[in-house]
Specification:
Chain lengths: ~350, ~675
């Protein structure tokens, strides 16, 4: 498999709030410490962030409240001007783009879902979803047609004429999602889309999100403060603290090899079996290959029920069905017991 | 965001909305048909029949006469009561006036002997400067000192002290009275229910209108002026008190109950102290309103700066008028900044210091006393210390007269052409149009509008009030008022709303605009007349210019507020979808700010009406003139009836616009704000 193409790359992004932020950053040689910054009366929301988001992946940015996630994602779409750094979208520097160019990019290539929905209260569901197309000047029939498709995609058929305040929180966020998808964005930003919902609805919306992504295959930057949510959805996770990314990698990476104590705090409560994939737990095939097979990409938790039939070993298969190794019952039990 | 069941929201369903618009359209069509072709069919609907006019003015005048001559409460007569009130007010007023202006006298008229001189101008300036220093620091001290020096140097001192004396008496009485009423209304619901409509009415009746009965009851003089000022300034304090008490957090009230406060303790130890900040803001309002009113009350004998302006206006002596006008501005700025600083100062926690000696604890008070005594004694020997020497006074009166002359010589044609163009093309046609409307049709149309916007209750109110205007024989004058007010509001909005929108978007512009409108707002309405009369002489056009200048402030302020209050998250969402700046403004911000802008329009109308009445002085032919004539003839009935007609116009437009704003809010899905 060729390495996936990087769709969005950012290098050394800084965002400091306060007076004279830019000059201060330049004077201090481009790398001031947190203390230096707060002494200068500046709020360091994002500090020296590097990341790259690949085509078709779900890239989750996780961090506690105030760690700078919203600021970072707003820098990526240039809703906020970064103090310093470089953002490449398809290799093109976004920070050099003119305002008109940025409007063009946001209209056609980016979509965004907001934590508090940001639905326009005076418009119906249909008008809200069609709004991004309306500002582009798409004709009424066409945009409503498209909006109806999106509304049915998120399962809100029949509520087109309702107003946002007549919907529950979960339904409102479905409208937000439909709206952000109406322009068929290549890059989809979601800023804590489910945080304002209660846990049961949140779970339901996550399932919905996974289902949507299996159909749409978008490139996604997903913000959350909930580590379980991150584990559940992410292909890769970046963990933020005080504006910096402290670790980035696959969920498995992060759970098995936390880079700092801070990260370890989050991973402690996560069942290993839910993140460790078969590929990491398998062993070379000893003796004749077992018949029952499991994908190398599955998690241990997904593979475990297969042992209920009494098998001692499972054959591990790659993407093309080739045998990669075997998974032993004892290893699985160890992992599950580790919690 | 909270989930609200759809049914609980007062949003009329789309079909009802459409019905409303259709009903209004039909009503309008019928109205136009009737207006065009109905004159022969029903002439009574165009000119209210003279025989049916209700002689309300005569009744009221007779009633007031009866009050003064025959009314009795058993133990005492009504006249005793007014005499008593007059005495209660007159005593402190004379005291303050002798301190500030006349000195302590004995005897009357020309054989009066002055025992003690008034407090010297140096001491008064020193006292207010010390107050500024105490409340707001050096900057404020300098501003206040400059304002008072201005009064002395330009020869306005003695008039200014007369005005100040009225304020010093009216403000404490107004604040205490308003506070007690407000507390009462907070405590007893029936009192609140009784007070609210009265407060509403008091705020919309033009000030001239209650000058008339007061003049009748208390006679011409300073006491009557203070009574008028009190009546004018008390309602806002009452309102602020009610609001402030209601806004005390429930936790604080619970705490009061938990520690076992009595009712009395609850009010004075818990609620009032917790609401202190808002109450002080109310006090600032009372001061500014009092100043405004004291100036206007010069017509019933308040004297002072207002009288100087009035006299200059009558002589058409612009130089002198402007000088007095500037003095009013100086006094207004000093009083406003001082009272605001005191309000803010108490809002900040003061570091607790140990009580030391009297001297150390009250340095400012002591310094003020020292000034009074020393300058008082020194003044006996050096008159310049007692009263600012006349030889050193400056007068810019002639200078200003020349400036006006110069403008009129050089720009007369341009100004005249501008004035005539607007008069011929806009003002006069609009006036003709309004005067040609059938009163009965207007009543019916407004009723339909009220019904559509809120329901039968509003329809009844609106139709009833409009009918009363016609029935008391004031239709024509009321239409002239409507025309002047309408045209002024139109121009004020056309200028003010775009300024507001621009200022809301640009921080730096907003800072400039804010200073400008804050200053405009502290100026008593009288001041606006001077420049307008100077440039355009008397007439409708002049009145319009003054009204526009006065009423533009709310148009700007509410537009800014509306746009700034739009949820920034919605604006951000629009940006993320690729809206251009123009789309953001027109599709999101203006839409959501619309109810606020409508309320601004409402306020603009209220301001315009209150100013319009004052422009009677420059020769309008409307209800304001009617009140003014009643004032000069001391005819309380005529004045009150015309004043009430203005109030009715205000109430009708206020209720209709508020209902419209509420409807727009509901349509936009913005919850009614708790104010
Ligand atoms: N406009 C601003 N001006 C000043 N400081 C800001 C501004 N916006 C954000 N900050 C600061 O930047 C830091 C990061 O804020 P940010 O909103 O990005 O956090 P977050 O990780 O999204 O938190 P949450 O989970 O609460 O949304 C915080 O300390 C915040 O106070
Ligand atoms: Mg956030």
């Amino acid at each position: 498999m060729s390495p996936p193409e990087a769709k969005l790359v950012c290098r050394n992004i800084w965002k400091l709030f306060g007076h004279g932020a830019q000059e201060f950053l330049e004077k201090s040689g481009g790398n001031p410490t947190f203390e230096q910054l707060s002494d200068a009366g500046l709020v360091s929301a994002v500090r020296s962030v590097d990341l790259s988001v690949h085509e078709g992946e779900i890239f989750v940015i996780m961090g506690l409240s105030g760690s700078g996630k919203s600021t970072l994602v707003r820098c990526l779409s240039r809703l906020i001007e970064p103090t310093a750094g470089e953002i490449l979208f398809h290799g093109e520097n976004l920070l050099a783009a003119s305002d008109a160019k940025m409007i063009e990019i946001r209209r056609h290539k980016m979509g965004m879902v907001f934590q508090h929905f940001a639905l326009l209260p005076h418009m119906t569901v249909l008008a809200n979803v069609a709004f991004p197309l309306e500002v582009q000047g798409v004709g009424r029939a066409e945009r409503e047609e498209r909006a109806r498709q999106m509304i049915s995609l998120v399962g809100l058929n029949g509520r087109e004429e309702a107003y946002p305040r007549q919907l529950s929180g979960g339904q409102q966020q479905r409208v937000g999602i439909a709206r952000s998808l109406a322009v068929e964005p290549e890059l989809w930003f979601l800023d804590e889309p489910f945080s304002a919902l209660d846990p049961l609805i949140r779970r339901e919306m996550q399932d919905e999100f996974i289902r949507l992504q299996s159909v749409l295959k978008k490139t996604i930057v997903f913000i959350t403060h909930d580590f379980d949510e991150a584990i559940r959805l992410a292909d890769r996770i970046a963990i933020m603290k005080d504006g910096e990314i402290v670790q980035a990698g696959t969920p498995e990476d992060i759970v098995l090899n936390p880079a700092t104590d801070y990260v370890q705090e989050f991973t402690r409560a996560v069942p290993r079996a839910k993140v460790v994939r078969v590929r990491s737990a398998m062993q070379p095939v000893g003796g004749d290959a077992p018949t029952a097979a499991v994908s190398a990409h599955a998690t241990i938790a997904e593979a475990a029920p297969l042992f209920l039939q009494g098998a001692e070993r499972l054959r591990v298969t790659g993407a093309d069905g080739e045998t990669l190794g075997e998974l032993r019952r004892a290893d699985v039990i160890d992992l599950v017991l580790q919690g | 965001m909270t989930d609200v069941p759809a049914a609980s929201i007062g949003k009329p369903p789309a079909s009802v909305m459409r019905h409303g618009a259709v009903a209004l359209g039909i009503a309008l069509a019928v109205f136009i048909l009737f207006w065009k072709f109905g004159e022969d069919l029903a002439p009574w609907a165009f000119d209210y029949p003279k025989a049916q006019i209700v002689p309300a003015a005569r009744w009221i005048t007779q009633f007031t006469k009866w009050l003064i001559n025959d009314a009795t409460f058993g133990l005492f007569t009504f006249t005793d009561l007014t005499r008593f009130i007059a005495a209660v007010i007159n005593f402190p007023y004379q005291l303050v006036l002798s301190l500030l202006e006349t000195g302590v006298m004995s005897g009357r008229g020309s054989n009066a002997v002055q025992y003690l001189p008034p407090v010297s101008w140096i001491a008064v300036t020193a006292i207010v400067t010390l107050m500024g220093l105490y409340a707001g620091g050096r900057r404020l001290a300098v501003i206040v000192a400059l304002c008072f020096l201005f009064l002395a140097v330009f020869g306005q001192w003695s008039s200014a002290m007369v005005t100040l004396a009225s304020i010093l008496v009216a403000v404490p009485l107004g604040v205490v009275g308003g506070l007690l009423l407000g507390i009462g209304a907070y405590r007893w619901r029936w009192l609140e229910r009784a007070l609210l409509p009265v407060l509403d009415l008091m705020q919309t009746i033009p000030v001239f209108a209650y000058l008339v009965p007061i003049l009748f009851l208390f006679g011409f003089g300073a006491t009557a002026a203070v009574v008028a000022t009190l009546i004018y300034a008390m309602p806002p304090m009452t309102r602020v008190t009610m609001l402030a008490l209601r806004q005390v957090p429930p936790d604080v009230r619970d705490l009061g109950n938990m520690i076992g406060c009595t009712r009395h303790q609850m009010t004075w130890r818990v609620l009032v102290p917790s609401a202190k900040d808002s109450l002080l803001v109310g006090m600032n309002q009372v001061i500014m309103l009092s100043l405004n009113m004291v100036i206007i009350a010069s017509m019933i004998g308040a004297g002072g700066l207002g009288f100087d302006v009035l006299a200059a206006l009558r002589r058409l002596d612009f130089g002198a008028g402007l000088e007095s006008g500037f003095a009013i501005v100086a006094l207004a700025i000093a009083l406003d900044r001082l009272s605001q600083a005191f309000a803010n100062r108490t809002a900040k926690p003061v570091p607790e210091t140990k009580p030391r000696g009297f001297v150390a604890r009250h340095p400012y008070l002591l310094a003020a006393l020292v000034f009074v005594v020393i300058t008082g004694v020194a003044g006996l020997f050096f008159p310049a210390i007692q009263a600012y020497p006349e030889g050193l006074q400056l007068s810019t009166g002639t200078f200003w007269s020349r400036v006006v002359e110069w403008i009129n010589v050089n720009f007369f044609d341009a100004l005249e052409a501008f004035k005539n163009a607007l008069l011929l093309n806009v003002l006069i046609p609009f006036k003709r149009f309004l005067l040609g409307l059938p009163w009965a049709g207007v009543v019916a149309f407004l009723a339909v509008a009220g019904w559509v916007l809120r329901g039968p209750g509003l329809a009844l109110l609106v139709a009833g009030l409009t009918f009363l205007i016609a029935a008391t024989g004031q239709w024509e004058k009321a239409m002239i008022t409507t025309y002047l007010c309408g045209i002024s509001v139109l121009f004020a909005s056309l200028i003010g709303v775009p300024i507001g929108i621009a200022a809301a978007e640009k921080d730096r512009l907003w800072r400039v605009v804010q200073v400008a409108i804050d200053t405009l707002q502290t100026l008593p309405s009288f001041v606006y007349l001077m420049p307008a009369v100077m440039l355009f002489r008397v007439g409708d056009f002049t009145a319009m210019i003054a009204v526009v200048a006065y009423s533009i402030v709310p148009a700007i302020r509410y537009s800014v507020l509306g746009i700034q209050r739009v949820d920034p998250r919605l604006v951000e969402a629009g940006k993320a979808m690729g809206c251009t700046e123009w789309q953001l403004l027109t599709r999101i911000k203006l839409k959501l700010a619309m109810p606020e802008i409508m309320l601004g329009l409402n306020q603009t109308i209220m301001f315009a009406l209150s100013m319009l009445v004052i422009t009677a002085l420059v020769g309008t032919r409307d209800l304001g003139q009617e009140v003014y004539i009643a004032l000069t003839k001391a005819d309380p009935g005529r004045g009150l009836v015309a004043g009430l007609a203005v109030a009715f116009i205000a109430i009708v437009s206020d209720r209709l616009i508020s209902a419209g704003a509420a409807r727009t809010r509901a349509r936009l899905g913005i919850a009614e704000e708790v104010r």
